[in-house]
User: What shape does this take?
Amino acid sequence: MKFEIISANRLSDGRVVYLTRDGDWSESIIDAHSVHSTEERGAVLAQAERSADDGIIVSPYLVSMVDDGGTLAPLRFRERIRLFGPGTHRSATKNLSSQTGR
Amino acid sequence: MYRYDEFDHAFVHQRVAQFRDQVARRMSGELSEEEFKPLRLMNGLYLQLHAYMLRVAIPYGVLSARQLRCLADISRRYDKGYGHITTRQNIQFNWIKLSDMPDLLEILAGVEMHAIQTSGNCIRNTTADHFAGAAADEIEDPRVWCEIIRQWSTLHPEFSFLPRKFKIAVSGATEDRAALRVHDIGLQLRRNEAGETGFEVMVGGGQGRSPMIAKTIRKYLPKAELLSYLESILRIYNQQGRRDNMYKARIKILVHELGAENLAKLVETEWQQIREGAIDLPETEVARIEHYFEPPPFTVSTDAGLDAARHGDSEFNTWLERNVSAHKQPGYAIATISLKPAGKPPGDISAEQMEVVADLAECYSFDELRATHQQNLVLPHVRKSDLFEVWETLKAHGLANANHGLISDIIACPGMDFCSLATARSLPVAKEISMRFADIAYQQDIGDLRLNISGCINACGHHHVGHIGILGLDKRGEESYQITLGGRSDKNAAIGEVIGPAFSADKIVDAVETVMRTYLDQRLSGEAFIDAYTRMGREPFKERLYANN
Assistant: This one.
């Protein structure tokens, strides 16, 4: 199954965040709001742009996701790196178990 | 080292105050991202994949112990306890908060540092031979002219919004360690027949998607007229460089389209109009700046301590052979501190290691350090009799890797692990190669070799001029890696040749080993890799690499 979520960088510290179901922004992808239709996509992107205008986040965009046998993960490799952190700097890498949507 | 004058202090502190106000306005919503982005870039602040990245300028790669300690402090207070030496002799911090930036810049200003000219379409921080002021093969110290260029280019009203970024490198030695021929302008100090020193001026080199080797447009330029000549080149570029297409906006494209001879004529015509003007510095001002770069108070020293140590420890001897270079002053040596341990990202240095190196610089190298474009650090003035003690301290802190100029001394950009422009990761490839070739005896057997990795076509990892270059690409969502062979950035500079189709991420290290095996099997006695490649051409390598396809 394929769907999308919205991601951005937080203005104050640049950290990767995801738009949540209640319109907030979370560092955890588990909280991300899933977008399944083109109609919903426009409304959610508009909501994200308002957050950008309000100075909460920078440059929101859609991230394609896949549900691979119960594990939710970004489709593109770049987005997986944004999710998990740089693989070569272990101290900077995020806790994988708390980030995968199992 | 150069010390800030009143103007420098006032200007840098003024910039900090301006940026403090700009950050506040951005955080309050008064400035949009579109309005703010060019302002933050003028202060070295990029927004990357995971966080803001700050690039701090290290003018022509020269640092003091106090400055390195400050960078260590910043990495602890505002980052994750490490910094990353870049391929342009600067240092980057990968986890900076926008809200911390004004205070951070204030702290940097306190040790005469800033992040200006590390981004944007301006004349970037000038780079230099990292052995400047120390190398045995040096004709004249290039740092004096680097500093003069810094003062001329910083805040230059005419050249703050060029068609694209502009990079100048300067060397005063016979060996090119500054990659002059892949810079927008490369300046090589030379002597004329009368014994006077001046510059050979090379223009239009660069890497990126259209790699080119710079062309000499003037074989000898009197030093005193450097600034007016540079001003003429920049003026022609500013007027005629393409602004309609960012991929064709660098001066290398202008040189390619006009031809070097025609560009030289245009520059000459412009120069004749301005050379008698007020741009070039009076002798007294040059002398004032020269004063800052006078040699440190060397003492008469013998090699006795070094000789005793050389026989006593083979590990030390290996480090001496690879990481210690000839100094112009008898009894002294240049020590390269490799930041390339096996299995670690090239160029990374922890806060603790920065402090150790700062202490060593203070105790053993007249408080001087250099950052190299090969992502290492240098203690430029070490008494030979002190080398063993220096090495013991480095070894105790994981800094005595004896691999300078060997296959694991890899230049690599941050790649997709950090960079928002990257198309593939470069650091894991560097890590795997360094581990595959970790045996120092194997590396020594291979001998001199430059392996450079870039995570995209922008070529920040200098892959075009690696003897072996690796370019990371995105092939239908999968990382793949293209190999180039035969590149070099020395005085025989050449762009590497693409050897064939790219390799997948799990095959690239094997492919590098195949290249090495081919070389080892077919080299002549004492023949370095790059010389063997020049003799053999690419076919033997291509045959082995694609034998099963």
About this structure: Residues 85 and 92 of chain A are 6 Å apart (CA to CA). The radius of gyration of chain A is 13 Å. The first strand of chain A starts at residue 2 and ends at 10. Strands of chain A lie at 2-10, 16-19, 25-26, 57-68, 71-74.
